[in-house]
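User: For my dataset I need records formatted as: sequence, then structure tokens, nothing else. Please produce one.
Assistant:
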Amino acid sequence: MHRNDAPTLKCGLARDKMLKEIVGSIRKCDPPQVFGIYGDWGSGKTSFLCQLQYALCGQATLFDKEEIPEGLAVPSGNAVLPVVWFEAWRHQSDAFPIVALLQEIRAQFSPGTKFWEEAKKVNEVALHAALLTIDKVSEIVSGRTSLKGAGGIVESIQRTGDRYEKDHFMVPLQTSTITKLLDQAIGAFLGKGKAKKLVVVIDDLDRCEPEAAWRLLEGIKIYLNLKRCVFVLAMNEQIVTEAIAKVYKDGDGDRVAQKAVWRAREYMEKLCQTGWHLYSLRTPGKFLGDLLDTNDELGNWICALVDDKGLLPMNPRKMKAFANLLERYLSKAPERLVDAEREAKIILILAYLSYFHQPIYRVLYYHRERFYEQQLVPWASGADITLTGISEVLQGVLLRSEWEAAPDGPRKSRPRYYDPVLDNVLLIQELIAEVPKLSKGDFDRYLYI
């Protein structure tokens, strides 16, 4: 079975407590609020947002039908909070991405939707006026019309100040008036029921070009700092910070670049003061076991080795892809295993190199036993091989452990504790040292995959 990268409501990453905490924070907070959900690419941010959306409003935008995990639905007695889902990168080419976001809010409350049917019981006329307000504000923000061209909607709110003052303070007046218009529209949408706030979920902000991410965040900060709105921004925080730094950067040189990064960090801290990082509480081996859905001896050995030695990064996207590759290796394993543990180690070594270190794998593919025994094993075992004495494909890779001399016994490895998100660390270093020799049959069986 080949697993895809589609989001799911059943991610299997044991984030239930974190989900419950964030749902509680959203329900209890006093808007306006901006929360951050941080994670590296492939960490399952979109799946987590889908779970969050379902836990708040009882539906998920990206799913028509899927079995709902136990405990995910809105508890009885809790208000169903309307949630607007916005995929930022789909609108990164828009001159005014904030307008696209406004239209998503409008679509959520259009006639025929779940929340329209709920809200119209209070005042359907007010809802129609609110939809019209969203349209007019979109035109104003995009420059297609002015405040004067917005007609009676603006006049009903804008009752103070003389004409001279309006003309001379058009920019701040326009911003404050737009905010009042949107506050009025959101209030009409929410009505007087239990739903006291609108939740706006923004996904894939880190996939946008720097200027696009900046325009959207500026639009949120300027126009959507509304007293009944809660924003949830899902992103790779470092990527977005670097994108904003590019916008701030004005000149060349390290000092200029560093100053831009500082300003970008301050910008993000001011915009989003509360955030959660998506770490998994499950071990890679157990997660891999669920993906493989196997309980045979070889599969069990592989999962046990992964957990015992920490051989894989806990990144759901990479784990799914690795599981797809691993199944191909498992299909080539002999039916009768002489040494299941050794076979599991061989499969892990070759599959890991194939997925995470293709340059090393390609050299191994063509040079086989000679490269494995003369280069890989001594290098992974801590032999004194100078950089000029090893293959170029090994020189850019970091060894995870260093070996300590032990005169009264076998040498022991000491971990270096690299950042787990780094891609150039050889996590299977110890495994290679434990399998100093591969036979021609081992290579013939697995290297053609």
